[in-house]
Structure prediction request, 229 residues.
Amino acid sequence: MLIRTGGARTETLDLSLAGLLSTIAGALNAVGFLVAGTFTANMTGNISAMADTLVVGQVALALSFAGLVAAFITGAVCAGIAVHQGERRGHRAIYAWVICAQALMLLALGAMQLRGGMDQAHLVVSLSFLMGLQNAVTTMISKARVRTTHVSGMATDLGIELSAMTIAGETRREALPKLKLHALSLLCFALGGIGGTLFYGVVGGWLFIVAAAVLLALALSEIWLARRG
Prediction:
């Protein structure tokens, strides 16, 4: 799931990656909204909120939304640098190592939440950074076929592929796998949001621990497979 890149990836690998990481992204995005009333994976909404609050003179609030966008971009930059450097050195498991780093940072967030909690600002900024990092990994490894936090893009692509399904022949056959991928991503993001909301309301910071454990299990298994191959 985190070793093969670009054209070497199969439909099953992309579907598995999209399903798992979109679910986690949806859950973490929901937590950001529960904790601070803002989204950590929705940069379209954050930029719109920044513009709205700036116009009405709420400069401090506008800067807070800008900070979330900056954190998301920074996460993507860090993932990009790590992947480029890893690929230059021939590290097959570089994508898995980046997801491993995400899991460890998420584990640290969970530990801090359980020990007494972080302030809202630090928590949502940290989650935005992790969402940018994760989305960059999935985008790069799949050559932009899989995006686990970019819901507007997924919905747009879904609409495009639905329109392609009205055309007979090769166009319809090519659209079907993409339609399945985008539909699954949207569904899992929504289900992750529902599950994250319910789970966080019951166990609080343990949600981060569980999400980190899932990511860590995925990353370490892929690193092991890369070393075997």
Remarks:
- Helices lie at 11-36, 43-55, 59-88, 94-114, 120-141, 151-164, 170-203, 206-228.
- The mean pLDDT is 92.
